[in-house]
Amino acid sequence: MLGNFVYHNPTKLYFGPDALDSLKQELQQYGPKVQLIYGKGSIKRSGLYDQIVAILQQCGKQVFEDAGVMPNPTVDKLYEGCRIAKQNDVDLLLAVGGGSVCDYAKAVSVSAHCTEDPWDKYYLRMQDVDNKIIPVGCVLTMVGTGSEMNGGAVITDPKTKLKIGHVFGPNVFPKFSIMNPEWTYSLPKYQMVAGIYDIMSHIIEQYFSGDDDNTSDYLAEGLLRSLIHSSRIAVQDTQNYEARSNIMWTATWALNTLINRGKPCDFMVHKMGQSVGGYTDATHGMTLAAVSMAYYRFLLPYGLPKFKRYAVNVWQVDATDKTDEQIAAEGLQHMEAWMREIGLVMNLTELGVTEQMIDGIADGTFINRGGYKILTREEVVTILKQSL
Ligand code: NZQ
Ligand code: ZN
Fold first, then answer.
1. Ligand 1 atom 29: the closest Cα is on which residue?
2. Could you tell me the distance, in angstroms and rounded to a whole number, from the CA of residue 153 to the centre of ligand 2?
3. In terms of domains, do 200 and 170 share one?
4. Which of 1, 112, 264, 311 lies 20 to 30 angstroms, CA to CA, from 51?
5. Whose CA is nearest to atom 14 of ligand 1?
6. What CATH number does residue 113 fall under?
């Protein structure tokens, strides 16, 4: 394990079919004013909204509704959420939804009492929080981002087409998250598989970095094997509790600061995917899938030993009588076949990207320096073009 590090994850998780029973005891720890944050209506259709409002009423809470959080939440929506939180001096932000709703709640939590423009301060200048933080609790309905147990809060400015994530510290992590895998059954298949690939991408972006023998990589391999196994079951049988619950739990551990300990990490796929999202508003996991194969085939020669290990330990490639290059390439072939099997979007054209957009997308792609090869802007352009 390289370097010095702290591991501290303060989020309390309640997991399983009866997880919502614990909301009451959590609510008792906060004041009476609750901002109830949710998306465009899936929680009303599933009945979860009614269950949560009933619990809030039983607990004597005064509820301030903050509905309509869109996938890839925008800066204007953030300002609206801040107004609701500040005018009513709310005690808790209760996010019910997917990563967008959880991320947005965290962004409101640090921004409502911020005296500057939060987009400038936290996203363009990447400054830390030095004002009051409103606590956040999550009830998760979509799996993939890991937002339920991390400090990530990604916000998009449609005017400049910039989509930027700020990873806040443990003081901004959700205080608690409630996770019932059954709530994810109603997700459209497109969203389910996008979430599955988001998990995959989080894990491999941490895995493909560093040359040392590191426990984090062994944890990553185990998570990947579980994810691949369960994803194959879930696409055939979306109501399979065993598979959906494993996917939900894997998503949390894929990006809750455990498997990046002692690792430099290479988040280039996310940097490119986020910029694509800023241009097209496409579904997050699909933006990652569309650029991944071009990126990893480009990266392979620079990180050959790790790609070989990935092929053997994750994809069970038989290494007998093959060169390292052949083994590594076969691993990526298995990965691509799996991506096609579960129904991912494999190119940017399908997400609405045109050749004319490539320069702008490259301009909005922040270069990550932790991978086996630090990309130049020209290399970003090449990879994006190969992904069309
Ligand atoms: O708005 P509603 O009606 O709720 O519909 C949502 C939305 O349209 C729907 N949905 C959610 N749960 C459902 C459901 N539909 C039926 N049944 C359910 N149970 O799914 C759609 C997508 O939801 P969204 O929250 O946008 O998806 P996801 O969880 O993938 O979140 C994506 C956002 O998270 C950010 C992404 O950039 C993107 O903005 N990320 C956050 C990260 C973090 N906090 O660390 C890291 C990730 O890499 C990612 O960047
Ligand atoms: Zn992601």
1. 99
2. 11
3. no
4. 112
5. 187
6. 3.40.50.1970
**7 belongs to a structural domain:** no
Cα(147) to ligand 2 centroid in Å equals: 9
Q: Which tens digit of pLDDT belongs to each residue from 115-138?
A: 999 999 999 999 999 999 999 999
Q: Report the alpha-carbon distance of residue 180 to residue 194 in Å, rounded.
A: 19
Which residue's CA lies nearest to atom 36 of ligand 1?
284
Model confidence pLDDT, tens digit, residues 285-314: 999 999 999 999 999 999 999 999 999 999
- Total number of domains in the chain: 2
* Residue 380 in tokens: 């970003």
238 burial (CB, 10 Å; 0-12 / 13-18 / 19+) is middle
Which residue's CA is the closest to the ligand 1 atom numbered 22? Answer: 71
Of the listed ligands, the closest to the CA of 152 is 1
Quote the ligand 1 centre to 98 CA distance (angstroms). 4
pTM above 0.90, yes or no: yes
Domain that residue 362 falls in: 189-386
In a domain, 57, yes or no: yes
312 and 369 inside one domain: yes
Pick from 145, 157, 244, 288 the residue to mutate for probing ligand 1's pocket: most ligand atoms within 8 Å of its CB. Answer: 145
Beta carbons within 8 Å of 269's beta carbon, 6+ residues apart:
201, 205, 288, 291, 292, 295
Ligand 1, atom 39: nearest CA belongs to which residue?
72
Going from the Cα of 195 to the center of ligand 1, the distance in angstroms, rounded, reads: 8
Q: What is the pLDDT of residue 2?
A: 87
Name the domain boundary from 143, 167, 183.
183
In a domain, 6, yes or no: no
Report yes or no: 318 and 209 within 8 Å, Cβ to Cβ: no
What residue has token string 């619950």?
A: 245
Q: How many CA atoms lie within 13 A of 313 on its CB side?
A: 16
Token pair recorded at residue 348: 């940017």
Same domain, 204 and 104: no
